[in-house]
Every structure is written in C-alpha cells, then in structure tokens.
Design a protein that fits this description.
The chain is α+β, with helices and mostly antiparallel strands and about 220 residues long. The protein has one domain (about 50-220): Hypothetical Protein Pfu-838710-001 (Beta Barrel), CATH 2.40.320.10. It has helices at about 1-25, 40-45, 60-75, 130-140, 185-200, 215-220, and strands spanning about 50-60, 75-90, 95-100, 105-115, 120-130, 145-160, 160-170, 170-180. It has an 8-stranded antiparallel beta barrel with strand order 1-5-4-3-2-6-7-8, surrounded by 4 helices. A hairpin with a 6-residue loop joins strand 4 and strand 5. It is globular.
Length: about 220
C-alpha cells in the first residue's frame, strides 16, 4: 500500500512538473537587443593588451652578435637567455600556443595578428601555467596540435620594446621586436618606433619576414 501511494505521489509530481514546464515554455522569453552581438569581436580586442611586432631574418651567429652589440650600445638592458618550447593548437579565431620554460612552468597565449612583412599589430592574452606537460596533453586531445617551435631567445629591453634575438631550431637566426602599446595609443606610433629601432640595429627592410615561426617551419618541412 505504501509502495502504491509512493508511486502515485511520484506520478502526480511528474505530471505537475511537466505541466509547469509547458507553461514556462509558453511564456514570452526576454529577447536580447538586436545589436547585442554587433561589434563583440571589436570590443573584445579593444580590451586586450596590444603590441606592434616586426620580424627579420639574420645571417647566422655573426649577425646575432652584431645586433646584440648595437642593442647594448643603444642602452638596452640585457641579455636574458630564455629557452622556449612553443606548442600550437588548432584555433579558428586566431592562434593558441602553450609556451613551456625550463622547469615545466609556462604560459598559455592566445593572440591574433595579420601576416605582413612590416610592423603589425597584435592582440594577446597570457595565462600563467604551472604544469605545461599536463596542459599540452589535454589541449592536444581536445584541439589537436598545429605545430611546435623550439628556440633559444636572447632578450633585450630597449625602453618599452622587447628585442628578441632568436635561434630557432630548424630555421636559424632571427630578430623580433615587440613594441608595447598604451591603451589608447595609435598603432602608427608603434610602427614608427619599430622601424626606427630596426634601422638603428642595422637590419634592412629586405630582411623582414611575414610569417610566424610555426608557418615557416611548416613550409620548410613540406
């Protein structure tokens, strides 16, 4: 008898829930403003840190040493040597890479920028990572790898500009400049600063490179 009453009570509760759900579905739901999703990408980019980047190919160790000497003569702080292991993952809205440092820690970096030979604006987000090995495995399973870049980076700081002298495994020697932009600063200011510093470091426009290291490696391996 108790079991029968319990069963009936359960059926009554189920019927009541279904009826309430049906009534809820018939109620008009609030609609988002028609313009709610317009400009979402632009708003997000405006909120992200920005820099202007430029990359150039160098002719081996002698050129790296010459650029380092010029950087020191300009008063740049450095060098700091950093071993970097970058794993890229499939990403439809930009680039996603996990940068591992010696010791296992690192950074997860999302960024978006155009491929161009001259200075180019980049939007980015950095997230510190304690265990790059575990995160690499998870992202590989979830997204799939899109490439890997290993390099030894010599970092100099020239004011707000990061000067990278890179020895990239499988590619060779490169110079990369990153001019950090202020929140309301025009991209043109960073472009001009990058070009001035490039000239002061003795690098010619003909040495500029359009693509990221991961793309250059993919092309070299194909």
């Amino acid at each position: 008898m108790n079991a029968v009453n319990l069963r009936c009570g359960t059926l009554e509760c189920l019927s009541l829930a279904l009826a309430t759900d049906d009534q809820d579905r018939r109620k008009p739901r609030p609609r988002a403003p028609a313009h709610a999703d317009l400009g979402t990408r632009q708003v997000q980019e405006d909120d992200l840190p920005r820099n202007v980047e430029i990359k150039a190919r160098l002719d081996g160790e002698g050129a790296l040493a010459e650029v380092a000497a010029r950087a020191a003569a300009l008063g740049a702080e450095g060098p700091r040597i950093i071993e970097q292991d970058d794993t890229f993952f499939a990403c439809a809205n930009g680039r996603l890479k996990l940068r591992a440092f010696a010791g296992g820690a690192g950074e997860l970096i999302f960024y978006r920028r155009a491929d161009a030979a001259g200075p180019k604006e980049s939007f980015y987000v950095l997230a510190p990572v304690a265990d790059c090995g575990a995160l690499r495995e998870a992202l590989t399973l979830a997204c799939g790898q899109a490439g890997r870049v290993r390099k030894r980076r010599e970092l100099w700081l020239a004011g707000r500009t990061r000067v990278h002298l890179d020895r990239v495994e499988g590619l060779g020697a490169f110079l990369e400049l990153e001019v950090v932009l202020g929140p309301e600063e025009a991209t043109e200011a960073g472009d001009e600063e990058a070009r001035r510093l490039l000239s002061a470091l003795g690098v010619a426009p003909a040495q500029l490179v359009e693509q990221a290291y991961v793309d250059l490696l993919r092309r070299a391996e194909s």
